[in-house]
Amino acid sequence: MKITHICNPENRRARFFREACLRLGLPEPDEVAWVDLLGERGLPRLDTDAIRIESPGENFDVERSLIAKGGGPEFLREDVGRIRHQRPWFDGWKSVLGELETRYSDSRFMNDPAEIVEMFDKPAAQRKLASAGVPVPDFVVAVESFDQLIHKMNRQGVRRVFLKPAHGSSASGVVAFQTDGKDRFLATTSATLDDRGGMDSIAIYNNLRMQRYVERDSIQRLVDGLAQERLFAERWFPKASLDGRTFDLRVVVIAGVVAQIVVRTSQSPITNLHLGNARGNVDQVKARMGAGNWARAMHVCEDAAKCFQGCHYVAVDLMIGTTFHKFAVAEVNAFGDLIPGVLFEGDDTYTAELRSFLNQ
Amino acid sequence: MVPAKLTEWMGLPVKNWKPADGTPEFSKYIYRIGFDWEDSVDIKNSLAQFFSFPGVEETIGLSLGANTEECSEFYKDAFFLIENKAKLPNLKALFLAECDQEESEISWIGQGDISPFLEAFPLLEDFRARGCEGFTATPLRHNALKKLVIESGGLAKSLLKGVHESIFPELEHLELWLGTEEYGWDGKAEDTKPLLYENAFSKLSYLGLKNSDEQDEIAKLAAEAPVLGQLKVLDLSLGVLKNAGGEALLASEAVQKLEKLDLHHHFMGTELMARFVKLFGTSVDVSGREEPDTYGDEIYYYIAVSE
User: Fold this and answer.
1) Which CATH superfamily is domain B8-236 in?
2) DSSP state, A238?
3) B-contacting residues in A 139-178 (Cβ below 8 Å)
């Protein structure tokens, strides 16, 4: 089988997939670099049986091209960690994936481009899960401004929410926010507010360190800044903890079945691994939950993956409630399989995805 | 992070309870009752229903979880227990606001005077409470209390004074988490001096003055404190303990006679840690060595639980 990998070839994700091909006795995949595909020459002719689409992330030239393609500024300078232009980025991403789907309609996609797009529209993906009966946190509001958020929270009697950029990746721009409904506020986030340039040039950066904001003014500026991109609020689902650390599960579902699992633990409300948090022990979580609850939790992940039938693999972030018997999907990820060293039946994610794809 | 939730207490398993769970088994479990937004369960409503079951008088222990999503008015709801004290004549163990950080930040949990709870439940042996704002203690006499634990990211010194001036003839275990100025600690290390130098509790064997920004100064005071003569355990953990405080403890003969010295979460050097281990062996806990955070030119030391 000839496989084409659309990826950033310099990225370790591309290397992991190359290694998976070799491990399974396949030749190295043909690689098409995002940066070329988004360049002037456009989509090349491909002689291939199957196409795997990999994350365009961690490459500024690619990011800039996607933003420009989506109607954002043509000439951007790199500004590491800055949260900006997420709407045009998403529009560009959506349009290039649409072109791939049309142009390569004769090939099999490991993951369907249209469904990848859906997963990058987080509120839409959450709605889709909810309508299929998959538990997700209650949707509170599409955030236009801090004042509107507060108004809405007060009207609904909600005191704690998670604010999530609709097109953000991992924890970037996510804010855990709470208020007493009066004059007290707390925002915990990896986003840093930079307003040194004055009110008209507020910049928000994603940071690797969690920060706490308690001043209403700062939180207002932060939320208003993030709301310039698409931002939505979900009710805060209190997560279980073990050994004094909060955790959730990253569960990779391959061909409808749960495969690799990572326990992501944290001392803050935001559990994403790249924020310096640690991996926990799956067996310990299983033991604490009991076999029945664990099986139900895994079913929730498989049900979530079922909502994206055209995807051979999906990564589900599953939150477990404080009493260990309730669950909610925080999000589904198209590129959540970057969990090196985590094995299922001896395979890492890349190998397992490919092995079962070849067997289909 | 605050300690994990109790799974066993007073020799019984601890279990969450809400009205949908049906008749409680009062003699088999200690129940934790709290707000649960997933089920839209209100804490006062839950408690009212709990009290309505025949046999509720058998309850020996009760833990209250979060009262709302953010717990800022916890104390008001907790008072409902006092209003219903006739339903709990055998209460020996009580925990106010046993919620972890994911449910409510400790700094947001609104507390109040602990003494009305002690007055309302004369058989109480083990009383624990968690929170920050509003903690105080009006001095009182309580003849049963053996263990008192106040976990906080920032206590008011008035609570220390109130506890010290109280008469607790049975008190064996006293643990006060002092916290940091940022979250409400309004005292100085010297405010712990009465507890160390004018001990009023003849049965006291465990003293914890911990989770403090001023752990170093407290350690220096504790090293020479007369109360050490009766203690088995000195707990100075979770705070900003550095080499100076550690040296003072090492130099004290009274400290060496303790069965247990708990210093975990500290900022002492590894050389000093090794000396502790050499001298104390397994009776010292110097685990959890922390490194201060630096931002630019500034160095920050932090206590284990503040937020």
Assistant:
1) Ribonuclease Inhibitor (3.80.10.10)
2) P
3) 158-160, 178
